[in-house]
Amino acid sequence: MNRTEMEMSGPGGNRRTRTVKRKVWGGLRQLKLLGMFEIDQQHEFYSLTCMMKEGLCAAVQNTIDNPIPNELSEDDYKLEVTQIHKDFRMETFAGPVFASLRRSLGMTEKEYQHSLSSEGSYLQFISNSKSKADFFLTNDKRFFLKTQNRREVRFLLSNLKIYMEHLEKFPHSLLVKFLGVHRIRISHGRKKYFIVMQSVFYPDERINARYDIKGCEVSRWTDPSPEGSQVIVVLKDLNFEGQFITLDHQRPWLLRQVEIDTAFLRELNVLDYSLLLAHQPLHQDERNHSLSFATLIMRTKKSVNTGSGPAVPGAVPEEGPTLLATEVDSRTSQSQIRETCGEGSGEDYVDQGEQSDRAGAESAELREFQAQNRRLLPNFKNPLHVIDGPEQRYFIGIIDIFTVYGFKKRLEHLWKRLRHPGQTFSTVSPPEYCQRLCQWVQDHTK
């Protein structure tokens, strides 16, 4: 009899059994309510996620202590670093490459480390995906962690350089941003690969619908949650029928970017990837296209600020500073922006010569700000997967890019063609998959 069985059979064992049952049932009830729940000490993945947090904290600290170079080398793509912990080993693959990507997204290593290793437990996300992978979210819901098999990890690492080149060429790409690849080795030779990704649905406080789109019909309906329910359900293609992504002047950009990204995936010979889509209504102040550039900057800062808990995107408190009503172009000085955001020095007069001397530095600061907050500002794209239309804010990203069109998928294609005559299904050749998803976006945007 093991220790747990002995405890349950001793005095008070029935009470402990009831307690465990209540905790398990409580977890199941929370799962039914939310679609995700906190991984507490009774959860089957508690030990694994604690190892992930400890290992990731140390891995990122290694990057903090050894800053990455400005230029990546071939060795950086092949680098494997092993760190030994009390109960496990953590291996980090191509660490400098992913750190370089995080830097390009305007993410500091300290904030990345804090999010991955904060005291709050990870959340388990229950997906309706057929994948056997396990999905976790950091407590602030900013980053996704997903277990992968060895083949998928090797596929990503073997194509990492062209993936990075694609993101450098198209910094506004819709492809999900992979931020780290790791392997945990536990006792008795067990090992677990996992990747860290930026969550497409972040910040998610006001999102009112989520979709997983593949551009086909078979098995592409999910029963919605009951009205008024808090259940988080990711809907599918057939649920979206009759609706549109309304972007107006942003539509040509989206169509073109979907074409570019799916063409890249076609070259990788992959299929079965998904276009994640979510939306939320814009606040009234966000619908005003005549807002000044400085006002947009202030609003953007409030939208993406993570330093003081979850932010409501675009929310501007009533007691905030007065908004400018005049249009300010890209030559707006940084001093004007600071004044608008309530950060002015209080000086009524700045010497003209001194102001002129500051112009170059302030212009550089402004360009840097634009680069990091592109999509929430007019005619720019940003590191978050966010696009604003006239009435709605959309979250859009392409995920699950590891399924290669090999022998098994070709057989599956033939079998589905016989089983579902006249219907569209996900398992088709990469060129057809690419074309079909582009067509879906074309037909469902305006």
What is the gist of this entry?
This protein has helices at 3-9, 13-34, 46-65, 74-78, 95-104, 109-117, 150-158, 160-169, 237-240, 251-267, 293-304, 334-340, 352-372, 407-419, 430-443; strands spanning 36-38, 80-84, 88-93, 123-125, 135-137, 143-148, 178-186, 191-198, 209-213, 234-236, 270-271, 274-281, 386-388, 392-399, 403-404. The protein has 446 residues and is an alpha+beta fold.
What does this structure look like?
The chain is of the alpha+beta class. It is 40% helix and 17% strand. The chain contains 15 helices and 15 strands. The protein has helices at 3-9, 13-34, 46-65, 74-78, 95-104, 109-117, 150-158, 160-169, 237-240, 251-267, 293-304, 334-340, 352-372, 407-419, 430-443; strands spanning 36-38, 80-84, 88-93, 123-125, 135-137, 143-148, 178-186, 191-198, 209-213, 234-236, 270-271, 274-281, 386-388, 392-399, 403-404. Strands 1-4-5-6-8-7-3-2 form an 8-stranded antiparallel β-sheet. Strand 13 and strand 14 (392-399) form a beta hairpin. The relative contact order is 0.12. Residues 1-34, 302-350 and 371-381 have low confidence and may be disordered.
Please supply descriptive tags for the structure shown above:
single chain, 446 residues, alpha+beta, 8-stranded antiparallel sheet, 5-stranded mixed sheet, 40% helix, globular
Describe the SSE topology.
Blueprint: H1 3-9, H2 13-34, E1 36-38, H3 46-65, H4 74-78, E2 80-84, E3 88-93, H5 95-104, H6 109-117, E4 123-125, E5 135-137, E6 143-148, H7 150-158, H8 160-169, E7 178-186, E8 191-198, E9 209-213, E10 234-236, H9 237-240, H10 251-267, E11 270-271, E12 274-281, H11 293-304, H12 334-340, H13 352-372, E13 386-388, E14 392-399, E15 403-404, H14 407-419, H15 430-443
Parallel strand pairs: 9-10
Antiparallel strand pairs: 1-4, 2-3, 3-7, 4-5, 5-6, 6-8, 7-8, 9-12, 11-15, 12-14, 13-14
Helix pairs in contact: 3-6, 10-15, 11-12
